[in-house]
What does this fold into?
Amino acid sequence: MTMASSRPRQASRRSGWHLRGSAGGTFLLIITLLGIGAMYLAVSARAAEFGRQVLTLESQREDILQGNAELTAQLALLTAPEQMLARASELGFKPAGPQDVDYITVSGYQPDAEFLAPRPPVSGDIGQTALSPAYTETLGEWFSRVLGTDE
Amino acid sequence: MVLGAMGLVAAALLIQLIRVQFGPYAPVFAARGEASLERIERVIPDRGLIYDRQGRLLATNAVMYHVEIEVRQLTERSRQDIAAVLSKLLVLPLEDLHSQLTTDWASLGQFRVRLTRLEENGVRLPLTIDQTVAEVLNGFLADPTAPDLSGLSLVAAPRRVYPAGTLAGHVLGFVNQEGKGFFGIEGFYDEWLSGKPITVERPLIPPMARLQPDPPAGVNLVLTIDAEIQQMVETILAEGIEFSGAESGQIVVMDPRSGEILAMAAWPTLDPNNYEPWLEVGDEEPVISPAASGQYEPGSTFKLLTMAGALDSGAVEPDQIFIDTGEIEVGGHPITNWDGNAWGPQTMTGCMRHSLNVCLAYVASEELGAADFYDYLVDFGIGQLTGIDLAGEVPGQLRTPRHAQWTESDLGTNSFGQGVSITPIQLLAAASALANDGAMVQPHLVRQVAGPQGNYWPKTTILGQPISPETARTITAMLTQSLEGETQYARVEGYELAGKTGTAQVPTDVGYDPNQTIASFVGWGPVSDPQFMVLVRMDKPTISPWGSVVAAPIFQDVVERLVVFLGIPPDTAPVQQAALP
It folds into this structure.
């Protein structure tokens, strides 16, 4: 056997192993990239889904608040003094004069507490306060939280 | 060759990408991209609510809808159907609506147009609908078999609602369509009630969605007004207007110990839900909240202050005798009594009982003197704002010796309330000193401010002590006798009250009107422990010019009901005793 004939076999044997290794690495790279892409798409889709829910819920909140305001106004209309006076008259009541009233002093009687108006809500960036740390923490912070919990 | 073609395409794409990213139109594309992600929006908070002292809502918020059309979505059929439906639902002229729907808005560069309605005075106002009509229209929009309303859009907007209608309308004022308050409480506290609008970036795509902050809300107010007492007073005022034929009138009820206004009624009434007619008064400023903005010459009710000042200074005593000859000259100006008669020997109490102009002019000019007289009037707050929390208060007019136009004759006429202008609130504040041991309280209408950060209760403000407690009690006793004797129409059985009638001439450009008057009455009680003051003013009554005939009975009617609302037993009635188990 000559040197020339042995070299190609060694080369082909080296080439086959190298080629198979390169193909495997490329395949792994493609799989990894596909996996990362799939994860990104999944997370984006979830974010879009929850974002849509937030927008929908905000719109519903607005509708509910408007509905509440409308109902409050309607209730106030129905119980306005003029309406109540008319209904009292229909039921046969009439305004009392001083001669119609008997006064009784009751020792220990506590009159009803005076009306206290409700306070309007305090404004603020509720987005900041309502977000879970899962949405804002970094990977390192997550590791620390998990390890801290485990220990 | 295929590879070459693909390479060319890829190269072209790359070049185009670079052009878009870095070329001259890059900022334009970037701006359009940004605009499609978010919209800058101004968020207006809900306006604060207004309650009466018992918690009944007097002013609240609801929703109205502006009716808009998206021009590019209109069809021939939808133009007809929209006009027909709106015309029928809202009782509007079909032609006007059709005209708005068929206008070539696109050529004017407008693609979204708000529909309007034409008022009788020729002004065009935005077309607005309430929730009920909005539900009907939304039902049509969702129903494919209903009239074609393509292009119609309903835009929600806040609407101020006053559930009690005209009740306390002059106290509340109103809010216009832009959400700004005018007159009354709405005007005075507009900034507090409005809250603070904020600007937010509202995301248009879901991935950028986030919770939006709420704007700082307006405060809620609790008034000192009791809606039931207000209703009672307004009913009595309306009956009084009908009975007397008066042109207008006011009744104010106040607690002299604190200055809390329990009721403030005015006729003609104002419905804040429909305020536009009040703005159509030509060149004149509309007189809303006339108790604080409607000045007038008070007439004989002003004698309270003249006599109080004279007693306090020691210039006169209650039993001091004055010989009334029927006429006196002050500064060259002759002054006579209301009936032109001479009343002979009268005590100061008698002068008040019979409301003698001659006697009071004598007291002011001869006993008290100009300097002291006007000093007392200034101490009583005449010619100055009371500071009541109502928009539009005016200070009235008082000419003193410091003014160049003042003459000595003013001293004579001012002593019985002519030649001087005040508001009902000013007189009530001044007279509160007589009912409150000399301490003059500031009238006010708000008893609680409920804000996001906490509650605030305005305290009673004492404007001054123009007279001593002894003087206050002395003049109250004089007026109690006066009411018992002369002003019988103001009496309420079982209750000791003090008060004074007033019949003032009405000034015109050429002197005083000989036929018309302003009839009034101011009183308080129970005398032993005053818990209320009532002022009645009736302008130009036709049935009789006299305060004792027109205003005093109205005072009586109000007090008869008021003592029941306030739970004030008669001075002489037996009160049963009981104890809780």
Observations:
- Chain B touches chain A through 71 residues (CB under 8 Å).
- The first strand of chain B starts at residue 38 and ends at 43.
- The mean pLDDT of chain B is 91.
